[in-house]
Amino acid sequence: MSSFSDYTENLVLNWLFTTNSATRPTSWYVGLFTAAPDDTGGGTEVSGNAYARKATGTMSVSGTSPTNCTNSAAIEFDAASGGNWGTITHVAIFDASTSGNMLGWASLTTSRTINDGDILRIPAGDLDITLT
Description:
By secondary structure, the chain is mostly beta strands. It has one helix and eleven strands, in the order E-H-E-E-E-E-E-E-E-E-E-E.
């Protein structure tokens, strides 16, 4: 991930440096964007044409300096149906399949245009969240 959201930064800092408790998400979902979100949210998430966020499935954490979290299995979106999704430039991770809180976001290494009938797939090990 390129950046954690303000929501995630507040959650982590409150948990680490105060006596406040934090409720950890129990599921994580990948959302696709045609315009960049930022730390406060925003951006343009794909909508319509059979688009839905997809669960990340199992994530694994390894290494130190940097510590890396990555998807253990492929994440495959349903085929665009009834129209195009446009050019996907960014991804974000959310704590819910709809609405919810954006936890972090990043630009794709290579943008991908999704036309009617296309499927976007993130191979195992390609969704990386890194802390340095």
